[in-house]
Amino acid sequence: MSEDYAIPSVPGLIGVGNALQLDPTAIHVKLSDWERKFGPLFYFRALNHRYLVVSDIDIVSNVMRDRPGGFRRHPNLQSVMKEVGVDGLLAAEGSDWVKQRHAMDDGFRGFELDRYQAMFGTIETRCRQRFRTLARVGSGVDVFSEFQKLLIDAMAIASMELDPRVSLGDPMNFEPLLNGIFPTIGSRITSPVRYWKWLPLPQNRKIQRNLLRLTELIESRIEIFRAGRPTSEEAEFRSILRLLVMAQGAQRLDDEALVGNVITILLGGLDPTAAVLAWSLFFLAQNGKVIEGLRCDVERNGLESRYLGAVIDETMRLKPPLPLLFMQSIADAEFKGCRVVAGTNIVLSLYNVNRDPSHFRDPLDFRPERWLGEKTDRTSVALPFGRGPRYCIGRQLALFQVRSLLAGLALHFDFHLQGAMPRELLEFTMRPGRSFMKISERACGGSEGNL
Ligand code: HEM
């Protein structure tokens, strides 16, 4: 086995390394430039931290599978999430993660998607009404924030049977509780300096206050579920929190873990799903033939449409909501014959894997057809939800929400780019940078009964 000096390093400055070359909101792009120059395995340095960037699908898959024993999420993620107060499955490690994952797997298994589907109709109606209003107003629309707002309602319903617009009257009371938490976590994870420790910015104090209020709200739901009481939204529907509270024996989580996991689900379900929906609309606005094909197939096959699945898969290939996964090796490992010592910081770049021309022909083209059986592409290497024991627990729920909302919107609206495609803004999630699109209602849009 060669020593790890067989792996190339990006040349940097003494002391700071490559820190000055890295824009925290576009790290994935810089790592993609470096991958073209240094290959699928290389090191870079930010101040006194060295990172090994991996863009080779076999190594990426092996790292993902070898958890929790061989690799862990980067300790920064755990400490930042705990500091902010979001202490659930995403941040857990070792035996704590094993316990939480068993309990959460049970909760998600008990969650009946078809019953939730009936409630989700409310969100689809809200979505349609909101887009109709936006189309009538006629000005540019920030679709990512529109989806965030809708999904806050959807995730509050799924996680704790709470429809903010029904239970709290004014949804404005609920939305701010979640806004800003993910971007804060993202910027802290990638920051080489822990500035927030000695610089308590007003924005951070606001987030702490909001988290406290959110915690109180979740605790009040735990009380309701523990007493077996119904909620005003209950319609033959059991939320993930109710299922977790009802769990017995080893699957029982304490209140702190219940709160941490509801916040994790609320956050995990928000920005990545909103990003997929927003990027899909940008691609549809750019590709007239694709939206036509999508409408035809959805008219014919409803939510079973294969082309709908292909549009979503292709969107996530080019715009993976979590393009970089920050990890650390727990034991010594070997990557393609090179030794990687325990404690090495590792960045798995799904972004690079998904744009690798040896897996995808014309990798930068948006072509949903590559998911419909073309033999030229190795689509199995795109892993938007991760792989192995820590793959995304909300995958099914996320795909259901994206399919439902996207199909309805494509049938009823047209989308128009205002200028170029938006830039990719990495804020933990890779979302479209602030940019706007125009929406118009289709004159001959699908009939009302049609999705
Ligand atoms: C399109 C939307 C989504 C995408 C692309 C996405 C992607 C991911 C990825 C890449 C991971 C890391 C997987 C790994 O380390 O192997 C992950 C983990 C996770 N996701 Fe998602 N996610 C989405 C939606 C959701 C939703 C809706 C929820 C909650 C209902 C959720 C909850 C979680 C949780 C709790 C974890 C941590 C799992 C663990 O560490 O055991 N995600 N997600």
3D structure, described in words:
With 451 residues, this protein is of the alpha+beta class. The protein has one domain (4-441): Cytochrome P450 (Cytochrome p450), CATH 1.10.630.10. It is built from 17 helices and 11 strands. It has a 5-stranded mixed beta sheet, sandwiched between helices. Strands 5-6 form a two-stranded antiparallel ribbon. The N and C termini lie far apart (57 Å). The structure holds protoporphyrin IX containing FE (HEM).
Strand content: 5-15%
- Total helices: the number is 17
For the record, the CATH architecture stands as Orthogonal Bundle
Mass-distribution shape: globular
Helix content: 40-55%
Number of domains: 1
Strand arrangement within the widest β-sheet reads 1-2-7-4-3
Q: Provide the residue-averaged pLDDT.
A: 90
Briefly, what CATH class? Mainly Alpha
Which fold name fills CATH's third level, the topology?
Cytochrome p450
Provide the succession of SSEs.
Answer: HEEHEHHHHHHHHHHHHHEEEEHHEEEE
Low-confidence stretches: none
Alpha-carbon Rg, integer: 22 Å
Topology:
Blueprint: H1 27-38, E1 41-46, E2 49-54, H2 57-65, E3 71-73, H3 75-84, H4 94-110, H5 113-137, H6 143-160, H7 164-167, H8 175-178, H9 181-190, H10 202-226, H11 240-246, H12 255-268, H13 271-286, H14 288-301, H15 306-318, E4 324-329, E5 333-335, E6 338-340, E7 345-349, H16 350-354, H17 395-412, E8 413-417, E9 424-427, E10 429-432, E11 437-441
Parallel strand pairs: 2-7
Antiparallel strand pairs: 1-2, 3-4, 4-7, 5-6, 8-11, 9-10
Helix pairs in contact: 3-9, 4-11, 5-6, 5-17, 6-13, 10-11, 10-12, 13-15, 13-17, 14-15
This protein binds protoporphyrin IX containing FE (HEM).
Protoporphyrin IX containing FE (HEM) is lined by residues 64, 89-90, 101, 264-265, 268-269, 272-273, 276, 321-322, 325, 384-388, 390-394, 397-398.
